UniProtKB/TrEMBL annotation:
It comes from Amycolatopsis umgeniensis. GO terms for molecular function: FAD binding; monooxygenase activity. The keyword Oxidoreductase applies. This is 2-polyprenyl-6-methoxyphenol hydroxylase-like FAD-dependent oxidoreductase. Keywords: Monooxygenase, Oxidoreductase. Residues 2-324 form the FAD-binding domain. It holds the Pfam family FAD_binding_3. Gene3D superfamilies: FAD/NAD(P)-binding domain (3.50.50.60). The keyword Oxidoreductase applies.
C-alpha cells in the first residue's frame, strides 16, 4: 500500500512517519527545496505530546527539556487579567514542551527513509482517484493526504466551490531571542494588540506579537519596539534583543468549515482541513492528532472505511477547537474603550471553570 502526502510540514511529515511505521510505502511531496522551517517556536501541549508518543518520538522532546503552560494573561501595565495554576494544569493534563519548529521537523525527517522525501515538487492538481500532478510529473497512490496548509492545492482541486482562506483582521510576528531572563510564559493584551513570550529549555525565548492591521501590511522591528516600549517587563528587553533577520510576519487566516474532509481516496489534514487562529496554540497540535488517527484507522479498516472513520472522528473535534480559538482570542483585539474597560473589569472576576471549558477538550485527547 502506498500513501502520497502533499506538504512536508509538521502534519505531513508526522503522517508520513505514522504510515511508514505501519509498513506503507510513503512519498512526501514538498514545494520547498528542503524540509525545514525557520524563525519560530512551538508549544507542544499535552495532547500533541501524546500524539508524538504514539509515533515513538515523545521522549525525544522530553529529553530536550520540558516547559510550563502559559501562566496567564496580563495587561500592558503588568496587572493580571487571568492567572493560571500552572502546577494544577500539569497535574491534570500532563506535560508541555516548547521547541523550535525546525527541530521538530528534523526529528520527523530523521524517522523517515530518504527515498520517501521529494522536495522541490510543486503540486498542481490532486484527483480523487489518488493521482497527484506536480512539477516532477505524476504520482499515484492508494491514498493521498493533503497536508499542504491554508492555501492548499489539494483543497482547491477537490473542493473547488468551498470558500477560501479568510483574513481575521490581525497579523502576527514571530521570533526567538537569545537567552535572557524572562520569567514564566505570559501573554499580554493591549488595545487590538498582544505580546506573548515562552521561555525555551535552552534559555532562549520564543516571542510572538499579534496586532490589528490591514491585510498584507508590514511593520518592521523598529516600529514594533516603539509600539511596546512602555509595556511591562520583560517585553521591552525582549524586543531589544530581537534581530530583524529572525522576525517572520504572517497574516492570520482561518478556513470556513467543510462538510467533509475526504473525497474519494483523498483526505485533508492539518491547516488544509481546518486552519485556525493561533489563540489556543492548537494548530500544529491538531495536525499531529490528525496524522496519528488517520494512519491508525486507515491501516486497520482499509482506505474507504478508514477515511469515513477519520472524517467522523476528526472533523467535529477540529472544527470545535477552531471555533473556540476564534472566540477566545477576540477580546484581545477589541479597540472600543468601553469594551476594553468591560473586558478588563470582568475577566479577573470570572470563575476558573469558565476558562477550563475552553481548554479541557483540547488537552484531554488520547489516541
Amino acid at each position: 500500500m502506498k500513501v502520497t502526502i502533499v506538504g512536508g510540514g509538521i502534519g505531513g511529515l508526522a503522517t508520513a512517519v505514522a504510515f511508514h511505521q505501519r509498513g506503507w510505502e510513503v512519498e512526501v511531496l514538498e514545494r520547498a527545496p528542503e524540509f525545514t522551517e525557520i524563525g519560530a517556536g512551538l508549544s507542544i501541549q499535552p495532547n500533541a505530546l501524546r500524539a508524538l508518543d504514539a509515533l515513538g518520538l515523545g521522549d525525544r522532546l522530553r529529553d530536550g527539556g520540558l516547559a510550563d503552560p502559559v501562566a496567564g494573561v496580563r495587561l500592558a501595565d503588568g496587572r493580571w487579567l487571568v492567572r493560571n495554576d500552572v502546577a494544577d494544569l500539569k497535574r491534570r493534563f500532563g506535560q508541555w514542551a516548547t521547541v523550535h519548529r525546525a527541530d521538530l521537523i528534523d526529528l520527523l525527517v530523521e524517522a523517515l527513509p530518504e527515498r520517501a522525501l521529494r522536495p522541490g515538487n510543486d503540486v498542481r492538481e490532486v484527483r480523487p482517484d489518488g493521482t497527484v500532478v506536480h512539477s516532477g510529473g505524476e504520482s499515484t497512490a492508494d491514498l493521498v493526504v493533503g497536508a499542504d496548509g491554508v492555501h492548499s492545492a489539494t483543497r482547491r482541486s477537490l473542493w473547488p466551490g468551498a470558500p477560501g482562506p479568510r483574513y481575521v483582521g490581525y497579523t502576527t510576528w514571530r521570533f526567538i531571542v537569545p537567552p535572557i531572563p524572562a520569567g514564566e510564559s505570559v501573554e499580554t493584551w493591549g488595545r487590538g494588540e498582544r505580546f506573548g513570550h515562552l521561555p525555551m529549555p535552552d534559555g532562549r525565548v520564543y516571542c510572538y506579537v499579534m496586532a490589528n492591521a490591514p491585510v498584507r501590511s508590514s511593520t518592521g522591528l523598529d516600529g514594533l519596539r516603539e509600539r511596546f516600549a512602555r509595556w511591562h517587563d520583560p517585553i521591552p528587553a525582549l524586543m531589544s534583543a530581537a534581530r530583524e533577520d529572525t522576525v517572520s510576519q504572517h497574516d492570520v487566516h482561518h478556513l470556513p468549515e467543510l462538510p467533509t474532509y475526504v473525497s474519494g481516496s483523498v483526505a485533508l489534514l492539518g491547516d488544509a482541513a481546518h486552519a485556525m487562529t493561533p489563540n489556543l496554540g492548537q494548530g500544529a497540535c491538531q495536525a499531529l492528532e490528525d496524522a496519528v488517527v488517520l494512519a491508525a484507522v486507515v491501516d486497520k479498516l482499509g482506505v474507504p472505511a478508514g477515511l469515513e472513520e477519520y472524517d467522523r472522528s476528526r472533523r467535529p473535534r477540529t472544527q470545535m477547537i477552531a471555533r473556540r480559538s476564534r472566540q477566545v482570542g477576540a477580546p484581545a483585539h477589541w479597540t472600543s474603550p468601553p469594551m476594553i474597560a468591560l473586558r478588563d473589569a470582568m475577566l479577573p472576576r470570572l470563575p476558573k471553570a469558565f476558562f477550563e471549558r475552553s481548554i479541557t477538550p483540547a488537552y484531554t485527547w488520547t489516541i
